[in-house]
Design brief:
Length: 467
Amino acid sequence: MRAAAGLLVALLAAAYAIRADAHGRRVNTDFQAYDQTAYYHFAEKIVKTGGAYLTDGARGPAYPWLLAPFVDPDADEAAFFAFGKRLNIALSLACLAVVGAILFRALPWPTALGVFLAAAFTVFIFKAAYVQPELPYYTAFFAAFVQLERLLRFPSARRALAAGAVLGLAHLLKPSALPMLAIYAVCAALAALGRRRAGEGEGNGEGGGSSRAAWLAPCLVAAAFAGVVAPYAAANQRVFGDPLYNVNSTFYMWYDGWDEVVAGTKAHGDRKGWPDMPAAELPSAGRYLREHDAGQIARRLVDGLVEIEATARASYGWYRYVLAYGLLGLVAVLLRRSAAWAAARTGEPRPGWPRAAFVLATFAAYVGLYAWFGPINYGPRFVLALFLPWLYVAASAAARSPLAAGRWVAGGGWPRPTWTKPNPPWVAPRDTRWTWLDVVNGLILLHLATDVAAVLIERIVAMPAGA
């Protein structure tokens, strides 16, 4: 059985790599598109400065550092393009190995397999052949999300340090991890207060950890995060005078459109230092709130949400799994009698409540930020950071709900064939009882079989995916 599974994995990996390479040769043919040359030039500056170049004011340094060993500043950049695409395909396979390890450890294997295949063949394969940091970022973001969510239930020093380091890596890939860190810190404080009120003291309580460990965990997460991003923050402080400087979050998100960006801080050197403009003319949250009323702010958010949904609906196949797993998760939550429902009825804090708050606040914050940034720049590559966390949360809820416990076959399973002693893999043993989640997983995997075939045969060489 293991040999058959290994052969299947090898065949899928080979098909993935071959067709991702075809996408790179036939679809992604312009190195200038989708910021690909921007990361190449960042890596080029790292090589020319002997590693001293760490910030351009907009992008994290981790991906350019990965490219740097393969960059020759004296060579034509076009010569690097084909190699860079193949390098990213190999990197995407490594990222999928990490994603698979997380999923198959956290979820029952049929559920994990559905989530994994949906991610691999409706997201990763399309973005693999681009010289972009999106796939490593999605992987690090997802790993940090899972670790932080588990940390709220099982606080420990080791897990806290690992979660902070992975979140720091995500920030070095794309500087957008601070909202999740802030949300976790608030929810961790709520979880610690809940343990104290429950009288857990130093022992293990219902939440799986002591009160002291619950208070220590967010401190260790923050320390590990700060340690990983410290060189990048120091470079930002030295060049721009702000360790958290990023043109998108510092300035661009407070403009009404890209034309204002081009005529504003971008025209005044915001990528080389603090823009040479009067302080009163610099965009900021305070200035935006003074110059816009509540209706304009609400309209911008609504228009951004509409754009996200319309773009997702027209994308290359992943949106149907967002809807399918979203519906599955909703049904699971409605069916499950959990501590969260008890807390809602009694008003008492329960160990599960901060975890639910962390999940909901993370999705709400990032979707809201992506919607807000829509007038400046929007593409599926932003919101796709939430694809794996979304499927994981929905699948986890289903795996812990009555959908996974209720039995729907009343008999003793299929009878054993007379021509063989052990049951073949496709025949259930007599004590097997199928659950409703088994049925759902079967339907999802059946659909994925046809969808993966369509992707590999036609869709992968028909739809661009760099935006």
